[in-house]
Amino acid sequence: MAYLTLKNINKIYPNGFHAVHDFNLDMEKGEFIVFVGPSGCGKSTTLRMIAGLEDISNGEFLIDGKRANEQGPRERGIAMVFQSYALYPQMTVYDNIAFGLELQGADEDYIDEKVRNTARILGLTDYLDRLPRALSGGQRQRVAIGRALIRKVGVFLMDEPLSNLDAKQRVTMRSEITQIHRETGATTIYVTHDQTEAMTMADRIVVMKEGYVQQVGTPRELYFNPVNMFVAGFIGEPPMNFVRSKVQGGKITVGKTALDLSYKLGSKLAQYEGKELVFGFRPEAIRLGEHDNAYVLPATVELTEMLGDNTNVYIEMEGEHSILKVDPHDTPDVDSKITFSIPYESVYLFDGETEQVID
C-alpha cells in the first residue's frame, strides 16, 4: 500500500475557479516527489491541500491507508518549508530551530540534543547564536529546513524554497536538500517552476498544466518519453524544437526539405496522410554535418551563445526557427550556411491537433 495517496483530488474555490482537476498520485515512503509546472498550474494549491492548509473540494487524501481529509495540519504529521523563510527575526538560529519542540513541551536536554544534531546535518553549528539578519539567504533557508526537520514527522513539504536565492546558492542548496533527504529518509514533496531543480532532485516528477497532471515519471522517463508537446517543451534546456507541417506523400516538410516519415511511422504512415503533425527534436540531439541514419537539414546561423561547456546556435530554415546545442569548439559563424543531422531515434512526432506524442 502506498504511504500517501491522492484520489481524484479537486480544488474548486467559492467563486467557481477550478484550480486542480482530478489529481491522482501514489507516493511510497522515502520518495522525493517534485511537482513542476508554470505559475498558476495548481502545484502549490495541491501541496497546501496535502498540508491541510487548503480544504479538498472533492476526492480523498490518504496517509498510510487512512483518510486524512478532515485532519488538521498537526494531526497529519507533516512539516512545511515555505518560499519565504518565515523565521522569527528576534530569535537566534538555535531558538528558531527549537521553537517547534518547545511548543510541544519537550524536555530541555532533548531539545538541545536535537537542535545541535540538526544544526550539524545542516552545517549551522557555528551560527546557532546568530540572529536571522546576520545570515545569508542560503543559511536562512537551512534554518527554515532545520525547523521542519527537527520535528518527528513522516512527510516534508517544500514550496519553492530556493526561489529567493541567487543562482550559485540555488545550486548549492539543491545538493544540500538532496543530501538531507538521503540522511533522513523522509518522504518529501517539493514544488518548483524550475525544471532543472526537478530533474536534478526528484525520484519522480509530476508535471502540471492549468490544474491538470500531464505526466508522472522519473526524470529520465520525462526527458526521453514525453507524452505530449507540453511535457516535451517544458523538460529540457533549451526546450525541444517544434516544427508544424502537413504530411504529403508520406513526407513532412521542415523548412523546404521534405523528410520521409516511413522511418518513424512505418505501417501507421497512411493514416496520417494530409494531417498536420509536429516534428520535434532536442537541441542537443543533433550533429553538425551529414550523417547516416539521420534526417539531414540545411540552415542559416542567426545567433550564437557561448556558454562554456556548449554553445547555443540559433538557426533559420526557410522561415522556421530552431536552436541547436553544439560543442563550443564547433561553433559556426553568424550568417554562415550549415548542415546538421538528427538521428532517426532522436525525432519525436506529435499529433498536430491533440499535441499528444505519436508512438
Structural notes for this entry:
- With 359 residues, the chain is of the alpha+beta class.
- It has two domains: 231 residues, 3-Layer(aba) Sandwich (Rossmann fold); 111 residues, Nucleic acid-binding proteins (OB fold (Dihydrolipoamide Acetyltransferase, E2P), Beta Barrel).
- Helices cover 25% and strands 34% of the residues.
- Helix 2 packs parallel to helix 4.
- The protein is globular.
- The protein starts with a strand and ends in an 8-residue tail after the last strand.
- The mean pLDDT is 93.
List keywords for this structure.
359 residues; alpha+beta; Rossmann fold; OB fold (Dihydrolipoamide Acetyltransferase, E2P); six-stranded mixed sheet; 9 helices; globular
Helical fraction: 10-25%
Main sheet makeup: 6 strands, mixed
Low-confidence stretches: none
Helix segment tally: 9
Q: How far is the first residue's CA from the last residue's CA?
A: 32 Å
Mean pLDDT: 93
Write the layout of secondary structure elements.
Elements (H helix, E strand, L loop, with lengths): L3 E9 L5 E10 L4 E5 L6 H9 L6 E6 L2 E2 L10 E4 L11 H11 L4 H15 L14 H13 L5 E5 L7 H18 L2 E6 L2 H7 L2 E6 L2 E6 L1 H6 L4 H6 L6 E8 L2 E4 L2 E4 L1 H4 L10 E6 L5 E2 L5 E13 L4 E7 L2 E7 L10 E7 L3 E5 L8
Parallel strand pairs: 3-8, 3-9, 6-7, 7-8
Antiparallel strand pairs: 1-2, 1-4, 4-5, 9-10, 11-12, 11-14, 12-13, 14-20, 15-19, 16-17, 16-19, 17-18
Short summary:
With 359 residues, the chain is α+β, with helices and mostly antiparallel strands.
